[in-house]
Amino acid sequence: SGVEPGGAESGVLKSDGLLEKDRRHLWHNMRPYRANDRPLVIVEAMGSWVTDHEGNRYLDGMSGLWCVNVGYGRKELADAAARQLQRMPYYPLTQSHLPAIELAEKLGEWLEGDYVVFFANSGSEANETAFKIARQYQQHIGKPLRSKFIARYRGYHGSSLGALAATGQAIRKQGYEPLAAGFLHVRPPDSYRRPEGMTAEAFQLLCAREIEERIIWEGEDTVAGVIMEPVITGGGIIVPDQLYVDEVRRICTEYGVLLIIDEVICGFGRSGRKFGHHNYGIAPDIVTMAKGLTSGYLPLASTAVKREIYEAFQRTGEYDHLRHVNTFGGNPAACALAMANLEVMEKEQLPQRAARLGEELLNGLKRELADHPYVGDIRGFGLLIGIELVEDRDSRKPAAAAIVQSVIDRCRAAGLIISKNGDTVAGMNNVLTTAPPLSSTDEDMAFLLTVLVESVQSLRQN
Ligand code: PMP
Questions:
Q1: Separation of 36 CA from ligand 1 center, angstroms?
Q2: Ligand 1 atom index nearest CA of 301
Q3: 388 CA to middle of ligand 1, Å?
Q4: Do 75-347 and 8-70+349-461 fall under one CATH topology?
Q5: Collapsing DSSP states into helix, strand and coil, what is residue 152?
Q6: How far is the CA of 156 from the centre of ligand 1 (A)?
Q7: Tens digits of per-residue pLDDT, 426-455?
Q8: Exposed, middle or buried by CB within 10 Å (0-12, 13-18, 19+), for 187?
């Protein structure tokens, strides 16, 4: 297999200056400028595979940006959106409409708790909404000084000035400051990089208790919330132990701090359950969602809050309500499409499928690569896998950027898209990452495993 030319019958465009036009007019996301840069120009996609403008096919081991959970080319999703666009394309949620009502009810079912839902368009906005709700809620219950948020280093929560402030990766912030004030960071529960001589259990507890310490030192009546992903994803697939998550939940409850769980990547089956936090059996106060909510087909995001938080806003003062408006959030076509997306996931049991495929992939990688001199750690959470590359296994020194990139390039040349994640400033952008569509076939997964293993093994010859 590998990179195959599209052939005349594929109907794929030929270059015709496309890349020149791209370079002239289109500003990409997170892409360093290089004079000879050649971004993939994707023109077709089906299942787990994408095709570029030159007819090359790739298995999309990143589901776009971790979002195409049901895979590409689902006609029922497109049809649901098209029907709704023709019936009623837009109405704001200052009033209401049917697709939003139905989806809000459905999300309550998926969350397995008593939640009320606010809609937006992106993960960043869902988190911004959560921060505003948390602060105002604290005011409503008589804690007006509770404005701060605690997040973890290496966590990612979005690109807007509040969500970026919550983000714990310095390179994304540098040069864009000042960001929103009031966001504090603590260490991530990265047991692979725990101090020598400490048990993983003791380290996980230490990390959780750092949150408690910060709350105490800051003054417990000044902290509104803790925000965390169930598993740190963009920061390098850092999977906490049960006891860490339990301890964070205990601390938040004890100090009256809202626990905001960012399910933007971990949600919608990616983790092997409906939501990442379901794997830990905790009940968040606020859940933020985007990406897999529509499998990326249209923009839609959501902030779900426990009913008691919503009810604290049901006061009679003129400014007591949530004074937050979002023109496009909860667009009817996006909601209808999200509903179809969730129905596909239910019908095909995609969370369960992600659990199985993820476990098989993790086992396969461990079997083939566990002894490799450059492989420090292999981690997984459902169909979300990280391989931490190191210079040598004793010192755990992170592998150089060029080494990590060479594996990604080899995968690409063989027809597989993967990524790297971590923290550039800390010198740890060394975690190879894959998160293919949950609907990937067994053959897709075999291809992914083979190419990834061969690409990592090629490092032996370097
Ligand atoms: N939270 C997490 C965990 C994310 O991974 C992302 C996006 N990568 C966001 C929030 C922000 O989402 P968006 O890019 O849709 O604003």
A1: 29
A2: 15
A3: 22
A4: no
A5: strand
A6: 7
A7: 888 999 999 999 999 999 999 999 999 999
A8: middle
Contacts of 72 (CB under 8 A, 6+ apart): 45, 46, 47, 48, 49, 50, 60, 437
Number of H-type helices and E-type strands within the chain: 14, 15
Q: Nearest C-alpha to atom 13 of ligand 1 is from which residue?
A: 123
Assign a CATH topology to domain 75-347: Aspartate Aminotransferase; domain 2 (3.40.640)
What is the crossing angle of helices 442-457 and 350-369, to 10°?
30
Q: Phi then psi for 393, rounded to 5 degrees?
A: -75, -20
Q: 177 to each of 50, 123, 129, 162, 424, how far by Cα in Å?
A: 37, 20, 21, 11, 18
The ligand 1 atom at the shortest distance from the C-alpha of residue 291 is 15
For the segment 329-383, what is each residue's pLDDT rounded down to a tens digit?
999 999 999 999 999 999 999 999 999 999 999 999 999 999 999 999 999 999 9
CB 257 within 8 A of CB 226: yes
List C-alpha distances in Å: 30 to 130, 138, 320, 420: 25, 36, 39, 13
Query: Residue 108: what residue type?
Result: G
Residue 65 Cα to ligand 1 middle (Å): 9
Domain locations along the chain: 8-70+349-461, 75-347
pLDDT in tens, 228-270: 999 999 999 999 999 999 999 999 999 999 999 999 999 999 9
Q: Whose CA is nearest to atom 1 of ligand 1?
A: 157
Cα–Cα distance between 291 and 161 in angstroms, integer?
Answer: 20
Residue whose CB lies within 8 A of the most ligand 1 atoms, among 156, 227, 261, for a mutation test: 156
The CATH code of domain 8-70+349-461 reads 3.90.1150.10
pTM: 0.96
Contact 365, 452 (CB under 8 A): yes
Q: Which residues line ligand 1 (CB under 6 A)?
A: 65, 122-124, 127, 156-159, 229, 233-234, 262, 264-265, 290
